[in-house]
Amino acid sequence: LGGGGKLPREGAAKRHLDDDFEQHEDGRHDDRSKMAAEMDRAPLRTYQRPYEDGKIEMKKIDWHDYYQIEQDRKRTGPGEHGTAVILSPAEEGMKQELYKVNGFNALVSDKISLNRTLSDIRHPGCKTKKYSDKLPQVSIVIPFHNEHFSTLVRTVWSVIKNSPPQLIKEVILVDDDSSKGFLKAKLDEYVKKNLPKTKVVRAGKREGLIRARLVGARVATGDVLIFLDSHCEANVNWLPPLLEPIAINRKTVACPFIDVIDYENFAYRAQDEGARGAFDWELYYKRLPLLPDDLKNMPDPFKSPVMAGGLFAMDREYFWELGGYDPGLDVWGGEQYELSFKIWQCGGEMVDTPCSRVGHIYRKFAPFPNPGIGDFVGRNYKRVAETWMDEYKEFIYMRRPHYKNLDSGDLTEQKKLRDKLGCKPFKWFMEEIAFDQPKKYPPREPPDFATGEIRNPVSNLCIDTQFRGSNERFGLAPCIKEHQGQGGEQHFILTWHKDLRPFKRSVCFDVSAKQPGTPVILFHCHGMQGNQQWKYNYRTMQLYHMVTKNCLDSNPEMQELYMNPCDTQLATQKWKFDHVNVT
Ligand code: UD2
Ligand code: MN
């Protein structure tokens, strides 16, 4: 296994900050069992944040390790410099077994050196960039479940090789109950013999990636936490650009650019040159085009609404201030939204750092079976939506109605935390962070269900509020379209909140009793549904009131409106909007 390759320790002697390396080396062979048992967190702050009081002016230095870069330049071998590895026909025939259990071509991985070099595909501006000489030390947390040995170990080597040693406090591998028997013994042995500052912590039982990250974060002692997936490769000088924004503002969370390591041949390439992270209403992660200013300032860090999830750096104290991750999130999925929403809504910010690049193997398929616990992704999404997304959660339920019936567990603690931190509404996040700026990035408010006049096609009369106010009743009138000037207010919206209101006004159709004949009045829109929740059935043309289960009915002779039990045969219960949004 593993192309092996002698490790570039000889480079250490030439490193310009070599002394510190020695200084921080100790403790790398900690008593591991003690480590795992000792779940109490280390003191949260171990250093003086350099720019906190605004007194120190930042001194910038060139953090590149030119000795290492020169060594790397000379290397040759399969996959070096991020090139593709092509298997021989005989090997092609043997690759399936490893492919099946990993979701990527692990046989190719095994042919590549564990400390291979990548091509430097950074923006040219990154090559001359300098960063603060005072950067925090990091703990790198890497959860893994049945990761392939060579991809896991290559992740660690890439980090160690491409980072200034004095900035790495430790690398923590969290074994999330891997069942590959050989992985444990072989890994422990390899780590002990070869990997400086690295320790393996075992979760004890399958926790899923989110709680596994928490296990690692709890034993971490560095000033900054960096999370990585177990099949990554950090590129040249990736660390300083990631840390400087945090040194300047401890509430900034920084994400590297995530490059692609091809799952078939392990070639390394960019997925793009930057994007704003976002999502759709099924909570699929989306990448939106950069804003003009971000492009102009390239390769400076730019704000991004949502992280991809796996790879980011965050002040350790701040991570715990925000409660870490919701420990109720199971196995996989949703934690990237939880943390992103929490960061933005509760006073932090998130940036992508173009000069920090890390490759990641996006698998061809997920090789792990569901551990027999049903729709955990749905339950995770529901936890996040219920805790953080306020009324916008309805969009998710609209797309995925079955989430409504999922039991997502107790959310008391999560809601308490949101209260305690005094976090802003999701609407603020949507409008100011996620989809703001040149107003051209949808979705802002989701589309309304129906708009325009509401006409009874039999009597040919329209609903007309005559611009009345709160607590007032209203009825029917000749439609303005045919009787210019004769009507009053006949333009309505059935909004995405599911209330029914005159266009551009904040009074809503409100029904407060079940009895047949109950009138409809206007009332201040509260956005909480209840008495103001309507549903339009465009097939039967009925306007259904959810709470009372009655339908909007009319008496055309008297030009009156009131509620009655629904009856599809009744012409007086039929209503037609100008525009209906059928989704
Ligand atoms: C993406 C993220 C991943 C995470 C996930 C949503 C990137 C590059 N990847 O999916 O970090 O945010 O979306 O939750 O942004 N693992 C465990 N226990 C498990 C399952 C996974 O420890 O039960 C480990 C796994 O070995 C890996 C990490 O968790 O190191 C992420 O899992 P993945 O690689 O399957 O997720 P990915 O990249 O598809
Ligand atoms: Mn991954």
TrEMBL record:
Q: In which pathway does it act?
A: Protein modification; protein glycosylation
Keywords, ordered alphabetically? Disulfide bond, Glycoprotein, Glycosyltransferase, Golgi apparatus, Lectin, Manganese, Membrane, Signal-anchor, Transferase, Transmembrane, Transmembrane helix
State the EC number(s): 2.4.1.-
Task: Describe its membrane topology.
Answer: Single-pass type II membrane protein
**Top-level taxon in the UniProt lineage:** Eukaryota
Name the needed cofactors. Answer: Mn(2+)
Q: Where is the composition biased (Basic and acidic residues)?
A: 7-35
Q: Where in the cell is it found?
A: Golgi apparatus membrane
Q: What gene, per UniProt, encodes this protein?
A: LOC106807083
CDD domains (alphabetical)? beta-trefoil_Ricin_GALNT10-like (cd23439), pp-GalNAc-T (cd02510)
Record's protein name:
Polypeptide N-acetylgalactosaminyltransferase
